[in-house]
């Protein structure tokens, strides 16, 4: 009986994950095709999830993620910065510059964690600050994970206001830069948010939420020549972080 209950929990979460992958709303046939579970099993689990408020059934008979998940998601979002701190400290120790984690929320990039550089002259971004995605390293890293049509939709809503003389304000130029970032696996902010500051950032691929990590410092301490050696460090730490965020460790 205990094993049956555990299996039901596993399958319920599987269905919720599939719904999230499909944009939050799916038909029963989509769930059956993607999950490979028997229809009676899906019916039973969805009835339970609907009853608990984690799923709702729309008039079209499609199933959608329910409002009760919002509270859980908000609580997890508040913790993600705490989980990132050891990895950001590792970046600061290895690279010597300020490390940040940021999240794409709606059309904004929100900083959720930071470990400052030990240097007296260092970059400081307030945790909780929202910025435009087109003019920051971490913003461009996150945009590079989106399909082009989604990037166009975001920019259509936010615009591309100039923050410095180096800010990209032309959509085709941004799309070219995002393609370059996608190909090489990291993005660079060349003083586009703050004059004289260079930022190198990577998306945390396969994380449960869309987040990225970055390091920022004065261009004099982070010259272009350092970028190829900094990017692999960020990528390695991002891989370690995502393993933690996805709970790859075993529960004992």
Describe this structure in words.
This protein is an alpha+beta fold. It folds into two domains: 2-66, Arc Repressor Mutant, subunit A (Orthogonal Bundle), CATH 1.10.10; 73-245, GAF domain (Beta-Lactamase, 2-Layer Sandwich). It contains eight helices and nine strands. The protein has helices spanning 2-21, 28-35, 39-52, 68-95, 137-143, 148-158, 171-184, 227-245, and strands spanning 25-26, 55-57, 63-65, 98-105, 108-115, 130-131, 187-190, 197-203, 211-218. A six-stranded antiparallel β-sheet has the order 6-5-4-9-8-7, sandwiched between helices. The chain has a three-stranded antiparallel β-sheet with strand order 1-3-2. A hairpin with a 5-residue loop joins strand 2 and strand 3 (63-65). It is elongated, with a radius of gyration of 21 Å. The mean pLDDT is 86.
Question: How are the SSEs ordered, and which strands pair?
Answer:
Blueprint: H1 2-21, E1 25-26, H2 28-35, H3 39-52, E2 55-57, E3 63-65, H4 68-95, E4 98-105, E5 108-115, E6 130-131, H5 137-143, H6 148-158, H7 171-184, E7 187-190, E8 197-203, E9 211-218, H8 227-245
Antiparallel strand pairs: 1-3, 2-3, 4-5, 4-9, 5-6, 7-8, 8-9
